[in-house]
Design a protein that fits this description.
Protein name: Antitoxin
Shape: elongated
CATH class: Alpha Beta
Function: Antitoxin component of a type II toxin-antitoxin (TA) system.
CATH superfamily: YefM-like domain
Helix content: 25-40%
Oligomer: single chain
Pfam family, one: PhdYeFM_antitox
CATH topology: YefM-like fold
Structural class: alpha+beta
Mean pLDDT: 88
Low-confidence stretches: none
Strand order of the largest sheet: 1-2-3
Family: Belongs to the phD/YefM antitoxin family.
Strand content: 15-25%
Number of strands: 3
Largest sheet: 3 strands, mixed
Organism: Neorhizobium galegae bv. officinalis
Number of helices: 4
Order of helices and strands: EHHEEHH
Number of domains: 1
Radius of gyration: 25 Å
CATH architecture: 3-Layer(aba) Sandwich
């Protein structure tokens, strides 16, 4: 049906997206990202500015030490194998 999303509820052919751009924008706000296809392949995605800001918001910078401490590795239980490998001649 012309003007309706194709294949998936959030996917539009380029010509349909151009003709119904207001609806594409409305759906991006109410239903989430809207994909636009060109010749049957994903080309672009229309998202709300709120979603863009959420995705591009800079995460607080951490030092490498803070990053490693945040991984919770101190609670990780590791055991080393008793096998010391194999003997080789050099």
């Amino acid at each position: 049906m012309p003007g309706k999303p194709t294949t998936h509820d959030n996917s539009w052919k380029l010509e349909d997206a151009k003709a119904r751009f207001s609806e594409v924008v409305r759906r991006a706000h109410s239903e989430g990202p809207q994909r636009v296809t060109v010749r049957g392949r994903d080309s672009v995605v229309v998202i709300s500015t709120e979603e863009l800001e959420r995705l591009t918001r800079a995460a607080p910078e951490k030092s490498f030490v803070e990053f490693m401490e945040g991984l919770g590795l101190n609670t990780l239980e590791l055991e080393r194998e008793a096998d010391r490998g194999r003997d080789i001649e050099l």
